Amino acid sequence: MTTDSSASVRAAVLVEPDRFEIREFPVPSVTDDAALIDVELCGVCGTDLKYASGRLPAPYPIILGHEVVGRVAAIGRAAAAHHGLAVGDRVLVESSIPCWHCDACRSGAYRLCPTKGGYGTRTSSTVAPGLWGGMAEQMFIAPGSILHRLPAGMPAETAVGVPLLANGLQWLLRQGGLGPGDRVLIQGCGPQGLAAALVARSVGAREVVVTGLETDAGRLAFAARSGARTVVVHADDSPEARIERVGSAFDVALDVSGSPAAIAGAPAHLRPRGTFVLAGLVGRGTTVPIATDELVWREIRIQAVLSKDDAAIRSALALVIGQPEIGVLLGKLITDVFPLDDVASAIGAVKAGLDGFVKAAVQPDYRGSARRRVALA
Question: What residue numbers bound the domain in which 101 lies?
Answer without folding.
Answer: 8-150+333-373
